[in-house]
Amino acid sequence: MFLINLQGKDSIYEQIRSQIEKFIKSGILKPDDKLPSVRSLAEDLGINPNTVMKAYQELEKNGYIYTVNKKGVFVSKDLNVKKEQNRKDAVFMLNTLKDEGFSKTDLQEILEEVFSEEETC
To answer: 22-60 in b/e burial notation, b at 16+ Cβ within 10 A?
Structure first.
């Protein structure tokens, strides 16, 4: 399920976090789906459990997953709430950049750069 590049520029925990986010956003992981336990994922990937824990903590902080004591880690139901908050944050950031003198063309170029980088990953 997970592909970890030990020689990659991103840390292992960032790779795990990013892949889980992509699985959630693409619908591969759905609300209330159970994720592997920290220990089991760490064993499967041959990495330290603290690395998985760090990825899970980051995902939980950002609202992608939640933990139920003695039950496990699950995909959040409130992803639409998180998506709306992210949209508001993006609008605020874009307005800030506009106020700083960035033109619409400047912002479009940035968006093109970001999405072209995503396509090459």
So the answer is: ebbeeeebeeeeebbebeebbeebebeeebbebbbebbe
